[in-house]
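User: I'm new to structure prediction. If I give you an amino acid sequence, what do you actually give back? Let's try with this one:
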Amino acid sequence: MPIRSVAMISFHTCPLASQEGKETGGMNVYVLELSKQLSRMGIAVDVFTRSQDDDQPHVVQVDPLFRVIHVPAGPESPVPKKQLAQHLPEFVRNTLAFIAEQGAHYDVMHCHYYLSGLAGLDIVKALAYPLPITMTFHTLALMKNLVARNDSEYEDVQRVEAEYRLVREVQRIIAPSESDMGYVQYLYQAPADKVVVIPPGVDLAHFRPVPRDQAKAALGMDDCSRHILFCGRIEPLKGIDSLLYALKIMRERRPDLGVCLWIIGGDISQPKEQWSKELQKLERLRALLKLDSVVHFAGQQQQDVLPTYYSAADVVVMPSHYESFGMVAAEAMACGTPVITTNVAGISSLIDEKHELLITSVNNPLLLATQVELLLTDTAKRAQISRNVLRKVKDLNWRTIASQIVSVYEETLIHDPQ
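Assistant: Good question. You get back a string of structure tokens that encode the predicted 3D arrangement of the chain. For your 418 residues, that looks like this:
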């Protein structure tokens, strides 16, 4: 049976967040790009997300077959993620009211993150017809707790229990990498036939190489410096502090290299005393290591300028303690830029043994400094790696990924694994 319509639940974060001026992460991009591609394939997509701005229209028609519905649930303003669960019942009621008012009927539901999954279970229970659920967790509580570096990163038992429940009750689980599939199977006891590995896609028409000199000039970067780039949420588990230590080591060992680091992410529009705790911590570390002149906080950036940043960089570094996949790495690779990532990131499985230089270990700034240094000084190797990583991501175009996901949706209509 062909899939004609999908209800997509993205409760805690809106796929249009970047366009609305809010900080985004990989999940925002994933939901937006997947929904766009599904609509181009002739599948109608409604994305339900919690309204966070009363100035935004509640229904946004993104494409002819794709709309985002901002559902009132709690204050129409940002709410800390750990306080959002209390607004789930209102979200469910208002989503059901919208569906009833519109007379909408869906073939499948796809939930993103555990809060969306909980909402999805309640929505499906109230509908007058069976609606299979496909779940993408994006991150797992047990894995976040394993690498948590402070209390703010630690997930409570309620989230862990919710993920156990979702594993039991949904029809399919999409894991972004082989490693995350293993965690879902062995830590959450998911049946092997319920989990399928499908990595996130990359918009290859958007993320493509820009001549490096042109990219540097567009961003006003010093043409004589070598540039390292970090891009992502500013969180302790991203390991940015380890990257600062590695930069300090490189500058002491090779002061002739003239290395700079650009950090994309976080809101730096306010005075420094109003920055997030993690940004303030990194700012203090920058001063402590005497790196003020070579570490640049670029703040959050729109998707349309990211290819320029990736192309201007000599190397992108992703020093995460846990990363279910790592969309930043895939985007940078699509721009032809070498990426050094930790061996805990899901995307590391795309990098074969010939390129072990691109895989580092967690919290090892000496090793990271050596690997970055080798890439920066061996221009022939860097050029060869750039060509190779560009080829690696060709199969991650969103049309291919969306087609694989549609196949999973179709399986949920045929089989009932409960």
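You can read the tokens as a compact description of the fold. Here is one thing that stands out. The first strand starts at residue 5 and ends at 9.
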